[in-house]
Structures are given as structure tokens and as C-alpha cells.
UniProtKB/TrEMBL annotation:
PROSITE patterns documented for this protein: KARI_C, KARI_N
Residues where NADP(+) binds: 26-29, 49, 52, 54, 135
Lineage: Bacteria, Pseudomonadati, Thermodesulfobacteriota, Desulfarculia, Desulfarculales
Function: Involved in the biosynthesis of branched-chain amino acids (BCAA). Catalyzes an alkyl-migration followed by a ketol-acid reduction of (S)-2-acetolactate (S2AL) to yield (R)-2,3-dihydroxy-isovalerate. In the isomerase reaction, S2AL is rearranged via a Mg-dependent methyl migration to produce 3-hydroxy-3-methyl-2-ketobutyrate (HMKB). In the reductase reaction, this 2-ketoacid undergoes a metal-dependent reduction by NADPH to yield (R)-2,3-dihydroxy-isovalerate.
Name the UniProt record assigns to this protein: Ketol-acid reductoisomerase (NADP(+))
Active-site annotation: 109
InterPro entries in the cross-refs: 6-PGluconate_DH-like_C_sf (IPR008927), KARI (IPR013023), KARI_C (IPR000506), KARI_N (IPR013116), KARI_prok (IPR014359), NAD(P)-bd_dom_sf (IPR036291)
EC numbers on record: 1.1.1.86
Note on how the cofactor is bound: Binds 2 magnesium ions per subunit.
GO annotation, biological process: isoleucine biosynthetic process; L-valine biosynthetic process
Alphabetized HAMAP family for the sequence: IlvC
Length: 331
């Protein structure tokens, strides 16, 4: 392996023993991190904006909710577990004027640091612990005695202990049970954005929509198109997740396997890779970041228009009906 991977034995949890950790936000990641840290015996408060409806939820889950300014003033580690788009304003208004000189700032994604939307003071450590999974999984696996693998990185090492602090935090949320891969803010930010745009979210949605539309336009029932191009994706993804292409190809039919290896490359030809390369260029040279920051400043007109279009897509309408047949799927 060309990367450093750290496990529980490589961490020093004592570094956190006398530290007060303030988790800003109680959404997907904030909820999981703060509950895991508390269950690891650490001193955690959840910093919430004034009037937040989440105060009661935090209390009911056994944690201490604190108004954001007070939480920041007393914190040794401030965790930015807020939407990326909210972080710069929260930093300017609350963190910059109130952060203690020796306190650390912790991120779960590097966008705002890497693209200069947050400029930290030199006297603060700036670290990242980014679980490679959604918050629910971070919590569920912790409760089962396991953990979600994490990335860790250091952008600023004012204390001389920033990396050890990040590793100790990864221990606290359970990530070091699975392994913590060392990276940089730059690498995490650019690969995360590329992955979600070209493959995981953007690429996959576009692939499923194109497959669904091709079958429906050829006269097949939308219900059939939904099952073949969307519903069964999970079956295939789960097999790849567990055991790579090898396991997936072990479980599908011989006919499917032959179709996979001969037709798949025609759907994603070399030209698709050229477009992927252009998407990566826009991430690397900051064009995507500038577009996204300006889109937010303009109150998200393109974002809302494109989301509305997809909400009306036949695949979504048919899917909602068919999922009604499968009560076991839940919400
Ligand atoms: N979602 C995921 O699975 C992953 C996320 N990440 C990263 O983790 C970070 C957090 O993401 P995620 O957990 O999805 O965030 P969420 O969108 O789930 O965060 C919601 C929380 O943020 C609070 N919040 C929202 N806006 C503000 C504001 N302006 N001021 C104060 N509080 C605010 C909300 O407060 P209230 O309760 O008052 O509404 C709520 O508690 C991001 O950097 C993201 O990139 C990394 C890996 C995976
Ligand atoms: C894949 C989307 C993601 O990058 C994630 C859950 O890791 C995100 O930003 O939500
Ligand atoms: Mg991600
Ligand atoms: Mg992401």
C-alpha cells in the first residue's frame, strides 16, 4: 500500500482526556460523531444556532446542547459538521471572533479550506477526520463495536500534535477500529468531489435515467424499466461492495456476465473518460468551486430548476408507486 493507514493501537486517546469537544451541527455526521465521542467517554457538547429546533432532540439523546457562541468560547476542538455551504458564514460570525488561541478546528470534508472560503488563524490546528460513509452507518457500526474507515489530514499544525489529535478523534468516533488513511485536504476534496459528480451521484443517476428512458421510449412498460434499471442496482452494488466485480460476477448468470463485459464498455466509451477528465479539471482549477459558491450567492436558481426537473421524471413517479409494494423498504 502506498498510503499510511492507522489503527486503534496507533492512536493516543489520552490526548482528548482533558479536551472539550464542540460539535457544530446535529445532522447526518454531527449526530453520529457527537454520540460516538460521548460513548467513548469524551467531553462533548453540541453547538446549535439560536432558536434551533434540534435542542430537544440533542437532549433526548443524552447530550448537552449549547448555544453556538458559548459552545465555541469553551471548546478545545471545534468540529464543523454543518453543510459545507453554511460553514464560511458560521466561521466569520461565530468562530473567528470566539475561538481560543490553542483550539483546533476539525472538518469532515475539505472544500472550504481547500478553496479558501475559510481562512483560519495561524495559531489554530486545522485537521480533518472524514468518515467514508453516511452518519447513520458511522453510528450503527460504532454501536456494533465496529467502525467506518476514515480519512485524516492536517492543514495547519500549530500545536505540533495536530496529526495525533486527528487520530485520537478518529478513535473516538470508532473510525480507527476499521482504519484511518492519511491524506491531504487537497486530495480528499478533489477526489470526494470527483467521485460524487462523475460516478456515485451524478454518473449513476445519469446512467440509470438513460437506461430507463431507452426502454420506455422503445415501448416497454415503465414498471419493467424501473425494476431493470433502478431497483436491481442495489443488488449489484451490494455484491461489488462486499467482494468487488469478482463476487458480483460470481452471482450473476453467465449470460449477464457476457453482456456485462462486452456491452458495458460501449456504454462508457473512451469519450466518457474524456468528459470525466474535464470534470476533474474543473474541480482541480477551482471552476466548480467558484460556480457552486456563486450559485449559492444567487439563491440557487440552477440547483432548484434542475432538481425540480428530476423530481418530475417518470422514473421517480413510477418508483414511488412501486416502492409502495415493498413495505419492507421503509422510509
Ligand atoms: N452527509 C454525509 O454522509 C457526509 C458528510 N460529510 C461532510 O460532513 C459535513 C457535515 O455534513 P452533513 O452531516 O451532511 O450536514 P447536515 O446538512 O446534515 O447538517 C445539518 C446540521 O447543520 C445545522 N446547520 C445548518 N445550517 C446552519 C447554519 N447556518 N448555522 C448553524 N447551524 C446550521 C443544522 O442545524 P439545525 O439542527 O438547527 O437545523 C443541522 O443540525 C460536511 O462538511 C460534509 O461534506 C462527509 C462525509 C459524509
Ligand atoms: C457521495 C456523497 C458524499 O461525498 C458522501 C456521503 O460521501 C457527500 O458529500 O455527501
Ligand atoms: Mg464523500
Ligand atoms: Mg462529498
Amino acid at each position: 500500500m502506498s498510503v499510511n493507514i492507522y489503527y486503534e493501537n496507533d492512536t493516543n486517546p489520552k490526548l482528548l482526556a482533558d479536551k472539550r469537544i464542540c460539535v457544530l451541527g446535529y445532522g447526518s455526521q454531527g449526530n453520529a460523531h457527537s454520540r460516538n465521542l460521548a460513548d467513548s467517554g469524551l467531553n462533548v457538547v453540541v453547538g446549535l444556532r439560536e432558536g434551533s429546533k434540534t435542542f430537544d432532540k440533542v437532549k433526548s439523546q443524552g447530550l448537552e446542547p449549547v448555544e453556538i457562541t458559548a459552545a465555541i468560547k469553551s471548546a478545545d476542538i471545534i468540529c464543523f459538521l454543518l453543510p459545507d455551504t453554511a460553514q464560511p458564514a458560521v466561521y466569520k460570525q461565530y468562530v473567528e471572533p470566539n475561538i481560543k488561541p490553542g483550539a483546533a478546528m476539525l472538518f469532515a470534508h475539505g472544500f472550504n479550506l481547500h478553496y479558501g472560503q475559510i481562512i483560519p488563524k495561524p495559531e489554530n490546528d486545522v485537521i480533518m477526520v472524514a468518515p467514508k460513509g453516511p452518519g447513520k452507518l458511522v453510528r450503527d457500526l460504532y454501536e456494533q463495536g465496529q467502525g467506518v474507515p476514515c480519512l485524516c489530514a492536517v492543514a495547519q499544525d500549530a500545536s505540533g500534535q495536530a496529526k495525533d489529535l486527528a487520530l485520537a478523534y478518529a478513535w473516538g468516533i470508532g473510525g480507527a477500529r476499521a482504519g484511518v488513511i492519511e491524506t491531504t485536504f487537497e486530495e480528499e476534496t478533489e477526489t470526494d468531489l470527483f467521485g460524487e459528480q462523475a460516478v456515485l451521484c451524478g454518473g449513476l443517476s445519469a446512467l440509470m435515467k438513460a437506461g430507463f428512458e431507452t426502454l420506455v421510449e422503445a415501448g416497454y412498460a415503465p414498471e419493467m424499466a424501473y425494476f431493470e434499471c433502478i431497483h436491481e442496482t442495489k443488488l449489484i452494488i451490494d455484491l461489488i461492495y462486499q467482494g468487488g466485480l469478482k463476487k458480483m460476477r460470481h452471482f450473476i448468470s453467465e449470460t449477464a456476465k457476457y453482456g456485462d463485459i462486452t456491452r458495458g464498455p460501449r456504454v462508457v466509451p473512451p469519450e466518457a473518460k474524456q468528459e470525466m477528465r474535464r470534470i476533474l479539471d474543473e474541480i482541480q482549477d477551482g471552476r466548480f468551486a467558484r460556480e457552486w459558491v456563486l450559485e449559492n450567492q444567487a439563491n440557487l436558481p440552477v440547483y432548484h430548476a434542475l432538481l425540480r426537473k428530476d423530481e418530475k421524471h417518470q422514473m421517480e413517479q413510477v418508483g414511488a408507486q412501486l416502492r409502495g409494494m415493498m413495505k419492507w423498504l421503509g422510509e
